[in-house]
Amino acid sequence: MNDIVNPERILHVEDLEDPRLDEYLRLSEAHLRMRTDVENGLYIAESTKVVQRAINAGHVPRSFLLAAKHLGQLTEEFNKYPDAPIFIGDDKQLEDLVGFHLHRGAMASMNRPESLDLDQVLATSTRIAILEDVADHTNLGAIIRSASGLGIDAVLLTPKCVDPWYRRSARVSMGTVFDLPWVRLENWPMDIHRLKSHGYELLAMELTDDAVALNDVRIESGEKIAMILGNEGRGVTQEALDLADRTVIIPMHREVDSLNVGAASAIAFWHLCSAPR
């Protein structure tokens, strides 16, 4: 199987203290939350599909880590970046290294691309999702997958929102996070004024006394809409609500107040993106 790539690139994991493996060392949830990978310009792509989508989006791998049995799945990606070392080991070695059972194929340490320009993203979009302080990586990945699949043009993240390129977020998104433009805001909620200067109407999904049913919101052709979705616990902050143009709700039955933000986002995105543009 080694003849699929230059055998000299394939490095067998023998010493878990090898400094070349530091980027993968014990990738437990608690450990990664304390890491400074964003500042160091890297992220970890987990699963063969996510690695492939990241590379297809133009992201550059630093190295690959996988079990030998998965070598044949990434031949094209290996050959595209011949300088990136390929570390392989048995299942037990890799589990000891990263802190969990690596059963989804490959992992790769990836260079983070430069951030997108906010004004350019706003100018070239008509449907924007704003995620305010979303704290759960699984929720974020699910929201981004829905946003990508249902036609949202871009996602904006407030400063306290978790990282969409964190391995769990990227995996749950099925790698769609690498195809969907996103920008982290720096001056929330005052950034809302910037969106309005680009012609966006700001909707916030929140249970308020004056909220209107989402299905009653009529969107005309040519309108630019941004939807704010709030934190899992407290919802949209009052500061953001004060600056939004309207609040909306999804009508519910059987005394259920609301949906999980991941489910609510999918309904909201379908409504926004099914309207004429």
Beta-strand share of residues? 15-25%
Quote the average pLDDT.
86
Record field, number of beta strands: 12
Largest beta sheet: strand ordering: 8-7-6-11-9-12-10
Radius of gyration: 21 Å
Total domains, how many?
Answer: 2
- The sequence of SSEs as H and E is EHHEHEHEHEHEHEHEHEEEHEH
Fourth CATH level, the homologous superfamily of the largest domain: SPOUT methyltransferase, trefoil knot domain
Q: What distance separates the N and C termini?
A: 50 Å
Describe the global form.
elongated
Summarize this, please?
With 277 residues, the chain is α/β, with parallel strands linked by helices.
Could you characterize what this model shows?
The protein has 277 residues and is an alpha/beta fold. It folds into two domains: 2-111, Ribosomal protein L30/S12 (60s Ribosomal Protein L30, Chain: A, 2-Layer Sandwich); 118-274, Alpha/beta knot (3-Layer(aba) Sandwich). Helices cover 31% and strands 20% of the residues. It has eleven helices and twelve strands. The protein has helices at 29-33, 37-40, 48-56, 75-80, 91-98, 118-123, 137-150, 167-172, 191-197, 238-243, 261-274; strands at residues 10-12, 42-46, 61-67, 86-89, 106-111, 127-131, 154-157, 182-184, 200-205, 212-213, 224-229, 246-249. A seven-stranded parallel β-sheet has the order 8-7-6-11-9-12-10, sandwiched between helices. Strands 1-4-3-5-2 form a five-stranded mixed β-sheet. Helix 7 (137-150) packs parallel to helix 11. The chain is elongated.
